[in-house]
Amino acid sequence: MEPMNDSILVFKFGGASVKSAEAINNVIDILKLYANRKIVVVVSAMGKTTNQLESLFDAALNQEKDLFISRKETLYQFHLEIINALFSDDAHESIKKEIDLVFDGIMDFYHKKSDKSQSQRYDAFISFGEHLSSKILQFKIRKELNESVWSDARKLIKTDDHFQRANVDWPKSIALIKHHSRQELDSNRIIVTQGFISSSDSGETTTLGREGSDYSAGIFAHALDAESVTIWKDVPGMLNADPKFFEDTQKLDRISFREAIELSYYGASVIHPKTLKPLQNKQIPLYVKSFMNPTDDGTTIDVDTSNDHMIPSFIFKKNQVLFSITPKDFSFLIEANLSDIFLKLSMAKAEINIMQNSALSFSFLVDHDPNKIKSIIEQLSPSYEVKYNTDLELVTVRHYDQKTNDFVCKGKKILLQQRTRRTARFVLGS
């Protein structure tokens, strides 16, 4: 037997990689490739469970009991079918009891009255998804590999009480993760924990924002001085464009942390924006690999910048709304005006994707959200003439040339454009 390698690997498995019994068995096969390695496995909810829990949450808020029970039963049967396919005999009964307890908690949520805020209740409810997936996966790993332990991420990642998008308390989280995880890894080799969820000092469940499981992996890696993080996805690595919008995609074999952060900032969907910084700070490489072809190289993200300019990258954001506003008193847009505009946009909770101003007008682009659009208009219209265009797309090209720009803009009307030395951005209409 080979001696144990004491360095720690962090693996993150998303919903697609644990969406079925077959997928979970594939995870087991991947872990078998890393015998004698200490591994922290961070797992998301199975398949579309988070979306289903959100619909359950809405039904509970609206007191739609029949709808709630129907949707709960659908979700229960989904998880039951998976454990039926994975386990038999005593093992099946043990894990079924665990799953039944979670669904008892889901049902209790409907019946129990609460004076907590909607955001607070949302975080507590949505965490059931990761609880379910991590229990099932850990049980299977223990059965097949005989060396794993389940850890509750809420006891290890501590945050403030900004529900639905909590801010990590780094000193507390690092101390808790180091103390707990190193002890557990010495005796179990594999820890299975949850992505996305955390808790406040008062013990209330919090979440790190949608797609926050990547961030969870980064937190664990940073705290444990991990050798690397691997995010297992249904793509061969990080691509230079979303295959939904672009036929001829190319895999980025190696890019720097800086380049990956830039791509994340502009909206690339492969890596969560908050994931990269804690890894960069400790120079922990991040690998994006295919769970279907686990021995392939995938994409490496590290400190090396030499390949950053090799391949142009394209980021498409659909369903955009472009606002253009002008002061009603015909004044110039000086610093005081801009400060007022940003204050009003903050009050409307607007998240700006691109902005540009002239002497008399200020333009900005946001995702199409009817409630936020209404709020933006309400905030701005007393002082500004407000016009807007819908059904637009924002295209960002990293490492552009005229040929790539012409390609993405062909047949489109350019409403706004910006260019720096490395990045071109276009707001396009039909």
Largest beta-sheet details: 8 strands, mixed
Say how many strands there are: 17
Helix/sheet category = alpha/beta
Number of helices: 13
Structure, briefly:
This protein has 430 residues and is of the alpha/beta class. Helix content is 41%, strand content 25%.
Walk me through this protein's architecture:
This protein is α/β, with parallel strands linked by helices. The chain folds into two domains: 5-233, Acetylglutamate kinase-like (Carbamate kinase); 313-429, 2-Layer Sandwich (VC0802-like). Helices cover 41% and strands 25% of the residues. It contains 13 helices and 17 strands. It has helices spanning 21-32, 49-61, 65-86, 89-111, 118-126, 128-145, 170-188, 213-224, 257-265, 276-281, 335-347, 370-380, 402-409; strands at 5-13, 37-43, 149-150, 158-159, 190-194, 197-200, 205-207, 228-233, 254-256, 286-290, 299-302, 313-327, 352-357, 362-367, 384-398, 413-419, 423-429. The strands form three sheets. It has an eight-stranded mixed beta sheet with strand order 3-5-2-1-8-10-11-9, with helices on both faces. Strands 13-14-12-15-17-16 form a six-stranded antiparallel beta sheet, with helices on one face. Strand 1, helix 1 and strand 2 (37-43) form a beta-alpha-beta unit. Helix 7 (170-188) packs across helix 8 (213-224). It is globular and about 75 Å long.
